[in-house]
Amino acid sequence: MKNNTLIYFSFLLFVLGLFLIYYSSTKIQPIVIKISDINKEMMGKTVVIEGNITFIRRKESGIYMTIEDDTGKIFVPLFSNLVSSIDKEIINELSLGKHVRIKGYVDMYKDSYEVIPYCSSCIEIINR
Questions:
Q1: How confident is the model at residue 73 (pLDDT cuts 50, 70, 90)?
Q2: Distance of CA 109 to CAs 46, 74, 113, 124, Å?
């Protein structure tokens, strides 16, 4: 009888633990950082930035934007493989002046930092 109770209790804690992990992963939001805070220690790490689109160019190879907040600006490339997976409504709404939240990893291109989004949910338009 004690063995069955222990197994039942262990299973219950296991299921509860899985539920808590799932719940917390859906509720935890990454911290938005200022563009000027991006530095070499962040290379390859995931960051979240918010700002206005101040430059946008659409090409076959993707959409290329500059995002600016009150501390600086940064280049954000959306390569064609990512663009094809993003909701067309969001792609069509990307325009000058739109306020966006971008999640991506920090990289460097031609001596300048850039934030490269890696999934379709990494691009969010804040003011619609």
A1: very high
A2: 16, 11, 6, 23
